[in-house]
């Protein structure tokens, strides 16, 4: 196809230049018609824009200061209403107002929440992304308030003794956010509002490793923490609300079981879970993975053993 170069002489009048442009680009030749097109485009943009979705709530800790919840562009009415009514958002608001919460002593106030993202897991809210405007009343300054909400989760340290050696059962998973395969404890999110931490932990272990655990044999390691902590651990409280309950299971197995578990492919494939079981020596576990759940579980387990809160495993 030939290339056309448009040249307009500077000596032409404005009216002549417009005629030349109109012939080349097939635009109207009259200046007032060009202005009319520009005006129509502006009106169309203004018509398409709409005011953001908003919702006002009143918290018991600040009755005189209603909080405005605002949806960012792109958030649908369904997403907005579902997010506000979700257990994730309600739990976050509850955390603010607990005895150790940010709003408990009336030194700070929540002014506004900008809802920026909603990810659905089927019919329920999986993840929320929002920005909270929380102001320190003494200084009048905002505190950092960007939140990725995913709610409570569980993880379990499985220790299996065989022929005098203690092994830990891990899962190898594809983790897109960090761009690599990761060795982790079997873990999962609570998928309901019932708070069944022990049952969820046992179910996740069976889904991810194929091992069936009796609930009565599981020990809550995070229960050893002081009550003021909520008996949970927070891997990244600067940006994420996730709180994890860590459990322990100890058992004895034949060497054949260790061999069978090594490299076993598991997970809910229809949910995109591509999981392999990895069995490693417990004495080397602390240096074999960067998974915070593993390292926190080891710390709690070792300290509980040192303090005599756990009985030595029978050999």
From TrEMBL:
This is Nudix hydrolase domain-containing protein. It comes from the Eukaryota. Residues 29-54 are annotated as: Disordered. Pfam families: NUDIX. GO terms for biological process: nucleoside phosphate metabolic process; ribose phosphate metabolic process. Keywords: Hydrolase. Residues 149-302 form the Nudix hydrolase domain. Residues 36-54 have a biased composition (Polar residues). CDD domains: NUDIX_ADPRase_Nudt5_UGPPase_Nudt14.
